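Archive entry. Fields below.
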Amino acid sequence: MSESLVVPTMAEMLAEGKQPEVLFWVGCAGSFDDRAKKITKAFVRILNRTNVSFAVLGTEESCTGDPAKRAGNEFLFQMQAMMNIEVLNAYEAKKIVTACPHCFNTLKNEYPELGGQYDVIHHTEFLKSLMDDGRLTVEGGQFKGKKITFHDPCYLGRANKIYEAPRDLIEKLDVELVEMKRSKANGLCCGAGGAQMFKDAEPGNKEVNVLRTEDALEVKPDIIAAGCPFCNTMLTDGIKHQEKEGQVKVMDIAELIANAQDL
Amino acid sequence: MSYLDNILFAILLIVGFGFFASSVKKIIRNINLGVDVNRKDNSKARWKNMAMIALGQSKMVKRPVAGVLHIVVYLGFIIINIELLEIIIDGLFGTHRVFAFLGTAYDVLIGSFEILALLVLVAVSVFWIRRNIIRLKRFINPDLKGFPKSDANYILYFEMVLMTLFLLMNASDLHLQNVPGGFSHFHKAGSFPVSQFIAPIFNGMSNELVMLLSEVFWWLHIAGILVFMNYLYFSKHLHILLAFPNTYFANLNPEGQFDNLESVTKEVKLMMDPNADPFAAAPVDENAAPSKFGASDVQDLNWVQLLNAYTCTECGRCTSSCPANQTGKKLSPRKIMMDTRDRLQEVGKNIDANKGVFIPDNKTLLNDYITTEELWACTSCNACVEECPVNISPLSIIMDMRRYLVMEQSAAPMSLNAMMTNIENNGAPWQYNQQDRLNWKNEN
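PREDICTED_STRUCTURE:
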């Protein structure tokens, strides 16, 4: 990496008497998962390049509680939510961006009733707004002419009806965007949602991620674009299962944009 | 006695509608066994949903073949029922084609009923072929076996017979209208674009015989409609009525927003309040029912979920789009709805048999109908909710039952317990220290 990342924390900002434009909610996967950390860093490189004033909670961030809620543990979810809301409200957070659709959905839809009212946006929407405002130029670079298909994360797509922002960004890369037979509202889950990420699947005849990877491979893409760290893991595993890791890559939209510009 | 027919008809109507009213009463009583949930807000959006989704069938046409055919049957059902008004007046007052005075308008009406009836016959036949010859996967899926599978065919046969009777009734009438010099009360009225081709089958029969047949068709048609109406309660076909309230009362929040459990919020707030006295007696609240977290039986679900169960017509679009079901898991969102309805009917019968009180029968929706294996296979992806043409949410029932399993029984799969322990101890679903959350910044 040519330059080191500038990642201020909310605590540091507060000490300097500053309030960032946006709080970057990194999420557990983005903080700890080796594959997802690359997405986090790609997104930060874009933020640094575009001079967006942002900050993270760092060690004060904790799981939003999404997997607990979807596993049925409302107690644990609400404990997590209330602790996080206390921290966020103490910093007077207004606008939150996150690269995880699960964090996004929970913060946006399930925190308000517990006292956490924020303007929550997914990183693809945020990048799109940077592009629309002329702060970010998206160019094809190394991806020019490549065939890319986008897998809609359930918690971004069906759950919150965000289908266009990620596609608008991909199209700006001068690539051929191809749709799988099931996409947008009809998109098939990667298999990780509803806390499935953290348990073995029930007996069946196939893994969900393998089925979804088959959907993607049908359109013969060079790259499968994702907008969720969990989908990313599931599809990467699916590609390995099909022994296609040599031909097809799974990449987050933030990585596509950052890598296209050699950030 | 010339009034005998009219009296007989009135009795038929009273019995038909009387039985139906008692079924409707039972449905309403059973739906009200559910816990309350407020769905009276934002009536503008609710009316719009009902207009678009139930009346306008906007979600049906997402699958165009079934969607368009369904609209034909739906329009036929609604429009041909205008004819029912004439049939009822004729039957009660002994008139014959009482609306004939409308003249040309009457010709147009009867003509369009006939064309619709033919279209309905065609559409229903295609439905039958899709179920029994082409055997689409969602119609032969293992979750649809036994009565529900036959039920679907019975409904198609009913519709075929009713439409055929309607056309035969008209054809015999037309034959008698055309008797040179007129016959009995069969005056010229209506246009018969379809049944004119059926009428020749009566050639060579005596006028008296054709009149008798005509009356038989007329009586069978109206009796058939009344029987069909009463069959609704015992079948999956209630959607023709309940689709309207169901879309009106459906969830308006984003699909990703799962409901907040108020009862939990109170306890968590108390837990997190540094000033709370842990040894204080619980505050007495007269309105507080002993709260049970989540759902193990139908009475724990809310009334909208129970309305959902009665509304489901078992089309299987949910199941055919469910990632778990497509990969061979036991979970079928359609079965979740069917089980909920079956259990609710069982509870209803129990109440009927015990003078209005439910006597525990050592059965619950959980385990006796829906297994934990089904519940844990759900990815909460909302595909079933998105697919449902009448906005039913099988997912909300799955979530409520998971809540019961986890919060009342501590019966989550081992790996999920590990995940939750991690969140509790270190704020992440994996075993990483919260103090390491920003380490990625300096890693290469």
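CURATOR_NOTE: Chain A touches chain B through 71 residues (CB under 8 Å).
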